[in-house]
Amino acid sequence: MNKVFTTSGHSVHALQNINLGIKEGEFITVIGPSGCGKSTLLRIIAGLDTDYTGKLSLAGQPVLGPGIDKGFIFQEPRLFPWLTVEKNIASDLSLHDPNIRRKVDELIDLVKLKGFENAYPRELSGGMAQRVSIARALLRNPKVLLLDEPFGALDAFTRSHMQEALLDIWNKNRTTMIFVTHDIDEAVVLANRIVILKPRPGEVRSVVHVDLPFPRKKSSTSFQEIRFKVLNEFERIEELSWGQSGAGI
To answer: Are strands 144-148 and 176-180 parallel, antiparallel or unpaired?
Structure first.
């Protein structure tokens, strides 16, 4: 897969030779320096950007645009401020439908928001609001859940709690998840595999397998070994970037 942006008559290669295979039920984190195309890649997978060259398929079917088989979680919750938690989750579906009512109730329980069904977004913390977003995305049973740095604006304590909550949801549902982050620790905490992108153009530098049991302790030797491996890849990317920028001097 390749993606080129044209700005003021100039072509910018955002993504180049992206070749990834993701198994059903995997938890993938995508990490890389700013400007490496992480969010662009996620938008293409979501079907929100179809202006690229190459092939992209989901469960054997070509991705031709957005659809209910792909859930998307943005950096901010994007809830409707005039709707309650349960109505935000149901979105355009009626809670008077017994099946929708049951699914919404199950999701409220899954994301641990029991007792807040009738609360409005202004009455929720940032972490709670993101849990509503996750529940809304899961309502239609997507084949893949795409998350674009959803915890980036949260404080460290809430972020850690949300990571645990997301892993709990993944463990129960086994929905395929692709999670973009700029945080190395977060990538190791969550993933089965970490996809590391290098910038200019965005290309897969390496894929790191994380064969650690959940929950993962950051203080453990095995965690730190994988963290060091990812950090080492970042340092190599930085060295290559400096080498390229200085080549014409």
So the answer is: parallel
